Write a sequence for this structure.
């Protein structure tokens, strides 16, 4: 009895060790980013990243530099990223919840056709058509502004699927009751069904906003003016083949990640649900 | 006697009734999507086809040149981009299916091992943008002997590697970056898949004296098959549209010696750096055909799988 107990303990300990090794690899980059954000860039160039944090060299100067308008446009990038992400999330939620709800709740002609279109958006990487999309943005005067960043990506196919799935599970009797009370179809959506879909909205808000906050390729195509860039895009301008501006890069990277990690710590479950939507259920 | 509504008022009322009827409402709700689809998906798609046959010098200087762009695609740089894209997709799938499945099985065990903490730890890299991740990876994989990864290489008795100068080490860094960012997400997928397997299956297998390996092969693996198919599908999509990872590591769309240039990187570089819009569109068409082909092959393969099982 005692012997088998011990065998299980060894098994458990080795399992935890293995899992910890992977956790270390997952988390260590954050430690390095954080530590080096408090050190001058020269230090980075000289000694690279090392496990020893060298606390005696810590300074907040680079964070000050990051937000001084003379030294960097980081403040603008941050503001833009917040604005683009906010707009993208609101736009995306409005659009995908309406289609998803319509497909989930109503039976109408063309329903399957619409569904196929959503699938198409899901299957074909939009990068393929970024050239005409770029020309279109110029023609529509959406180039180098928020509309150009946000509108082409308002359809988030996996969010449509999620809303469709979610709303098809809602109690449809409530709709009939609402109709008797004199609500219009849109009133039913807005006043009765929408509040019931709140958890779905939470998960999808995370999915869409994370994608928007971290997106790179399309903003790179559609934004030019240095004051209009997003955080990832702005940070990437600090990396050049001729040398990198680590003074700004490190604290800039930290401030791009920290708020999200805090949000994640507070709503772990909804983050995992949101970002793994489309996974196979049942 | 009540006042009769005027003709215009009547029309308005009918229009309102039409707009609010349960027959019409679903169409109104999908309308924004349809418009968005037409303007930002369908039109650009058709336009890509059209542009791929054109030479576009400026906004007005458009010339039909037949298949010339496609003929020009037959060049070493583009072939190299196809190769990099294929290899990247291949390696990411090869690692990002078995590894997260294995870790998910461990995390799913009934023993108390702090699964919640580990799940969160693996997931956090997903919260970073590729650029932020790339900043760390460039440092960790830099050429100097004192760089993080080269120190580890040295500890195992190896020579310092010039990571981003040759194609094989570059692929290793790209794949590592991808695995680092996506491991946690795939673990969550597999955990969801594992939870769908009924515990009774394991119990009865245990009573029949089945070994852990047999239980894994005959219960776990078939149980998570839909998840495996799903993860492969999104990995193919992610692999073929990859560009950001390479951009984050090299800082340019065109990488030295094309060692890290992907198909999307090639499209971007041709169109937006060299201003060859028509040619870039042809490259886009090539990518589209490849993606469609792979989707068809995949569907066939997994359907065959399905009937066989």
């Amino acid at each position: 009895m005692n012997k088998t107990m011990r065998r299980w303990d060894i098994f458990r300990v080795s399992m935890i060790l293995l899992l910890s090794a992977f956790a270390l690899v997952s988390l260590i980059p954050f430690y390095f980013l954080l530590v080096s954000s408090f050190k001058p860039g020269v230090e980075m160039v000289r000694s690279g990243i090392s496990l020893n944090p060298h606390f005696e060299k810590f300074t907040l100067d680079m964070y000050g530099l990051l937000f001084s308008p003379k030294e960097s446009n980081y403040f603008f990038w941050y503001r833009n990223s917040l604005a683009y992400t906010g707009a993208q999330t609101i736009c995306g939620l409005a659009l995908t919840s309406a289609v998803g709800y319509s497909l989930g709740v109503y039976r109408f002609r063309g329903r399957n056709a619409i569904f196929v279109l959503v699938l198409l958006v899901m299957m074909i990487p939009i990068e393929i058509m970024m050239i005409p999309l770029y020309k279109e943005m110029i023609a529509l005067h959406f180039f180098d502004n928020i509309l150009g960043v946000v509108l082409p990506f308002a359809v988030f196919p996996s969010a449509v699927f999620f809303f469709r799935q979610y709303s098809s599970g809602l109690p449809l009797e409530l709709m009939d009751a609402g109709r008797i009370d004199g609500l219009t179809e849109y009133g039913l959506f807005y006043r009765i069904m929408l509040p019931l879909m709140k958890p779905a909205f939470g998960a999808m808000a995370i999915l869409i906003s994370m994608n928007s906050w971290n997106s790179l390729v399309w903003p790179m195509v559609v934004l030019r003016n240095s004051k209009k860039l997003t955080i990832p895009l702005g940070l990437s301008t600090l990396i050049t083949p001729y040398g990198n501006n680590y003074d700004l890069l490190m604290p800039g990277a930290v401030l791009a990640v920290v708020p999200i990690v805090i949000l994640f710590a507070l709503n772990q479950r909804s983050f995992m649900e949101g970002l793994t939507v489309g996974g196979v259920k049942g | 006697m009540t006042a009769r509504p005027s003709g215009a008022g009547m029309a308005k009322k009918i229009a309102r009734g039409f707009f609010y009827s349960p027959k019409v409402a679903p169409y109104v709700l999908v309308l924004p999507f349809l418009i968005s689809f037409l303007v930002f998906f369908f039109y650009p798609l058709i336009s890509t086809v059209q542009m791929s046959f054109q030479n576009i010098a400026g906004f007005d200087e458009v010339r039909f040149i037949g298949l010339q762009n496609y003929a020009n695609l037959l060049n070493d740089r583009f072939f190299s981009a196809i190769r990099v894209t294929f290899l990247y997709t291949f390696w990411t799938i090869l690692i990002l299916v078995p590894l997260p499945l294995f870790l998910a099985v461990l995390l799913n065990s009934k023993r108390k091992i702090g699964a919640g903490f580990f799940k969160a730890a693996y997931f956090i890299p997903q919260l970073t943008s590729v650029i932020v991740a790339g900043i760390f990876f460039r440092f960790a994989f830099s050429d100097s002997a004192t760089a993080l990864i080269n120190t580890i290489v040295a500890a195992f008795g190896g020579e310092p590697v010039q990571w981003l100068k040759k194609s094989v080490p570059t692929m290793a860094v790209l794949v590592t970056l991808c695995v680092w960012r996506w491991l946690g997400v795939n673990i969550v997928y597999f955990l969801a898949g594992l939870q769908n397997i009924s515990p009774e299956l394991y119990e009865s297998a245990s009573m029949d004296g089945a070994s852990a390996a047999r239980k894994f092969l005959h219960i776990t693996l078939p149980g998570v098959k839909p998840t495996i198919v799903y993860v492969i599908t999104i990995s193919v999509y992610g692999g073929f549209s990859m560009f950001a990872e390479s951009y984050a590591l090299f800082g340019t769309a065109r990488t030295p010696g094309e060692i890290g240039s992907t198909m999307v990187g090639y499209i971007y570089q041709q169109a937006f750096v060299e201003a060859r819009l028509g040619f870039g569109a042809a490259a886009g068409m090539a990518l589209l055909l490849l993606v469609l082909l792979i989707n068809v092959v995949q569907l066939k393969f997994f359907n065959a799988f399905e009937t066989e099982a």
Notes: The CA atoms of residues 66 and 252 of chain A lie 7 Å apart.
